Amino acid sequence: MNEEKGVQDPMLWLLRRHYAGTWTIRRTAHLWIAVATNPDTDRAPTVMHDDVEKFVRELENPPPRVGRRISLLSTSWSAERLDQIGDGAYRDDTPPIT
Question: What angle, rounded to 10 degrees, do the helices at 10-18 and 52-60 form?
Fold first, then answer.
């Protein structure tokens, strides 16, 4: 067996290999987590379960997406008021309203 990341967990390795074009898969001690590789999907962009069988069922047939397809931080309102200081990090120098 290879010593690449995930090979110590054969199920994780198999799922990553099978769903490589659709999902990025990882796991914790208690959760299976998948993130869609297509950010514009109309299906749920993230799937999480503690049971691998339920997890695979949702990978095969993910629920519809809920909410917006874009981050509110990428809207023109935010762009006019916030300074991007890093990847996903924004700063607003406006003092709080008291």
Answer: 0
